[in-house]
Amino acid sequence: MLKKILIGLIVGFVFGYTLQRTGITKYPRVMGLLLLKDFKNLKFMLTAVTFSMIGFYTLDSLNVITLNPKPLDWGKLVGGLIFGLGMGLLGYCPGTMLSRIGEGKKDSWMGLAGMVLGILFFAVNVDFFKNQLKSGSMNGDISEALGIHPWIIVPIAALLFISVVYVANKKWMISGRIFETDESIHFNRTHSQPL
Questions:
Q1: Residue 51 is part of which domain span?
Q2: Cβ neighbours for 162, distance < 8 A, ≥ 6 positions apart
Q3: Are 99 and 25 in contact, with CB atoms under 8 Å apart?
Q4: Considering 12, 33, 64, 122, which has the largest number of Cβ atoms within 10 A of its Cβ?
Q5: DSSP assignment, residue 172?
Q6: Is residue 31 within 8 Å of 91, Cβ to Cβ?
Q7: Alpha-carbon 8 to chain mean position
Q8: What CA–CA distance (Å, rounded) separates 109 from 92?
């Protein structure tokens, strides 16, 4: 038990340190992605997803681990929309919020308070949400849902993700103006952050 806690603390520290050092936790980075002006966060996350996907499916193929994807249902769609709305309003997700708290950013405490209230609201109403949103689920593993071997889907998905990262690094000429998809942007928080 203590070993699992220590491993979790070490992984959490490395994750938080990586988020902070790469600039993923910065408000301009998140808002730049949402405004389709700064793609560094997208490249970071797609790279992580690609390597994780290949790693997990490799470990599953070698019988080191067993993948058990959760089913997809309306609850995950509604939850994803609420998550996206919160991320757009605050400029960070739960992982980056905790990293920002670790950096000493006071605005992150409001995000934490909102997250705790949302969790409490869900906990009080969990039966209602399960009854309303858990119908019509499908298998969460796209390869099983389509009846295709995972090692056909994994390379296709990896190539797609790597292509998006590649395109996000390019300069494009649009109406005679050079558009650089990887340009850094800087927001003035007092004027750009929603009230």
A1: 2-192
A2: 46, 50
A3: yes
A4: 33
A5: E
A6: yes
A7: 19
A8: 12
Give me the amino acid identity at 15. Answer: F
Helix (H, G, I), strand (E, B) or coil at 127: helix
Residue given tokens 């220590």 in the structure block? 6
Residue 192: pLDDT band by 50, 70, 90 thresholds? very low
What total of structural domains would you count in the chain? 1
Four-point Cα dihedral 109, 94, 83, 29, nearest 10: 90
Amino acid (1-letter code) at residue 124: V
Distance between CA atoms of 168 and 47, rounded to whole angstroms?
12
Instruction: Report whether 39 contacts 181 (CB < 8 A).
Output: yes
**Confidence check: pLDDT of 76 > 50:** yes
Determine the residue type at 68. N
**pTM for the predicted model, two decimal places:** 0.66
